[in-house]
Structure prediction request, 435 residues.
Amino acid sequence: MKTLQGLKNTAADALAMCLEAGAEKASCSVSQGLLRELNVEDGKVNLMRSNFNSSLRLIVLRDGRKGTVSVNDLSPESIRRAAKDCVEAADAAKPDDANCIASLTENADFSEGIAECDETALYDATMEYLDTVKSDYPLVTIENLISSYSRSESVLLNTNGVDYSERQGSYSISAGFSSSDGDDTTSLTGCGVDFLGFDKKLIELGDQRRVFDRCVKELGASPLGADGKFTGKMLMSPECAADLVGSAIGLFLSDGVIIDGTSPWRSKLGQKVASDKLTLSCIPHDSRIVCGERVHSDGYISEDFDYIKDGVLKSFDLSEYGARKTGGERAKASSSCIGIAPGETPLEDLIKGVDRGIYICRFSGGEPSVAGDISGVAKNSFLIENGRIARPLCETMVSFNIAEMVMNILDISKETVCDGSSVLPWVLSDGVTVS
Prediction:
């Protein structure tokens, strides 16, 4: 593997080749990575492997046209071909005044996380994890588990003088499992977390204990029943909230829907779009985030910012191209590290306040409509009646509108869950159809 300076030299050479091929401006990002991975299936280790990868991405501008090319071969011959292909791609594109590369602000080098993998500690902690699940949750079967260490090094240079490097290294574990008791088997569920060391048992990180407990309680699930259809409250687990928040960002705030005008929030910057209980932020620099983004792919240093603050829309999720195209402001980071501010109500009290509703922990549905209408199956979920979790549900459908759902948020839990890439509470909303 190359040193960071070696990666910078490769990027500088690539820029020179782009200019030689006829580019007016060019940007080059080069990255390499190492993955050490331990795979478990049906409770047994079946694979240990190390993967190395590298990639180079070029962007060139020529006469207002933009070309992009990515390759995995970092040899000079491959890069020279890529530079030529990139210029040809630009020549074949339509001119667009919004095409650009990052301007020079402040160059920097970043280093986050763990530089080297402790393979023995990773293996031992994984075996301990499996033993703990077997002893503490005898009805649970881990169907697949991946524990790993990943390290990445990347640089981004362009002909405007931008020069960034970023080095990150961290561990992660993710498990997929179900519970069974005789012929009774639950739906597959899972949990995972990113982490930096082994000072705690892996199962104690994040919200994994709660998910394993919940998986056992899902045994004995039954349908709601045709006569039980209702419109009421939906309590979302942090992982379910993460999925729906991601859908909302893509559906209402991203480049495509803001540029083409299909987002119902396009003209609502500075206006109320959600309950005043909702503050949704991008938090790459939060101390609880493991190896958060330091350099945005557009070529700028990432910053924390709010999408929604106390229900008011503060920012779209625009790239620099999207910002130039619409006259808006580019997002200060990508949406990979999301946080929802907690409320003041304990989770137990949120449940006590629900006369009839559903506690949904995983949602399986199709793509939402342009307006945000969505329907699908409530997985790993429970019926709430008279302020308590009554029973587990199966074959239960939910439907709602995402824009209305965030406006109808009734309360947010005091507790939050951090999995290393997000910090999220439980969210209680109203107006959901359950059938």
Summary: The CA atoms of residues 10 and 75 lie 9 Å apart. The mean pLDDT is 94.
